[in-house]
Write a structure and sequence with these properties.
By secondary structure, the protein is mainly α. It has seven helices and three strands. A three-stranded mixed β-sheet has the order 1-3-2. Strand 2 and strand 3 form a beta hairpin. The two termini are 34 Å apart.
Length: 203
């Protein structure tokens, strides 16, 4: 690697470090919570949440997809994976509350999942554009191409920051619910809130 290629690559190092540390911390938090029982089933907590947010009419459906835990606006239903629905661990409770918070954002706060999807698609396209520009710029030791890559990458970072800010506002109602939930003890509340925060970091 030439010194020009090294110069083009250096700014990526702190990005990688911050990303890896953040991801590992979030994963560790979720893993710990998934092994800790709250003594209360996730569907009971979700029902209480939906009742409090006046979303009793929203149907909760058991998904066949083990990775699906979300509110689907088109169908007006919350789909929960077999691993999360009915589980008693703190991570599952946080996950179902996130899905409930999505329903609240759409039904009560006027958010649109379509606009979120469009923003996600734009972010994906710009991310791969950044990747291609930086890869080509570093391999060819081209500072102008690398600078272009970093500029597009800055736009991606801005979109992600905006998405996380929106995500935090969405799950705020779930955080407030957890704080006042009598069915959960203080330790469980702390774990659930930590998972909610971790999900915000890796979203």
């Amino acid at each position: 690697m030439s010194w020009l290629s090294l110069v083009c690559f250096l700014p990526l190092i702190p990005v990688f470090i911050v990303s890896i540390v953040s991801q590992r911390a979030a994963t560790k938090t979720i893993d710990q919570a998934s092994k800790t029982s709250t003594g209360v089933s996730s569907d009971k907590i979700l029902n209480e949440f939906l009742n409090k947010t006046k979303l009793d009419s929203v149907e909760v459906v058991k998904s066949s997809d083990h990775l699906q835990n979300e509110y689907v606006e088109k169908e007006g239903k919350i789909f929960l994976s077999p691993d999360a629905l009915g589980s008693v661990d703190a991570a599952s409770i946080a996950i179902v509350l996130l899905a409930g918070a999505q329903a609240d954002a759409v039904r009560n706060q006027g958010c649109s999942s379509q606009s979120v999807e469009k923003a996600r698609n734009a972010e994906t396209i710009l991310f791969w554009t950044t990747f291609c520009l930086l890869a080509f710029g570093i391999m060819t030791a081209s500072i102008p191409i690398s600078v272009a890559g970093y500029l597009v990458g800055t736009i991606v970072a801005f979109l992600r920051a905006k998405k996380r800010a929106t995500y935090k506002r969405t799950v705020q109602v779930a955080r407030e619910f957890v704080k006042g939930c009598d069915a959960l003890d203080e330790q469980s509340k702390t774990l659930v809130e930590r998972v909610l925060n971790a999900e915000c970091r890796i979203s």
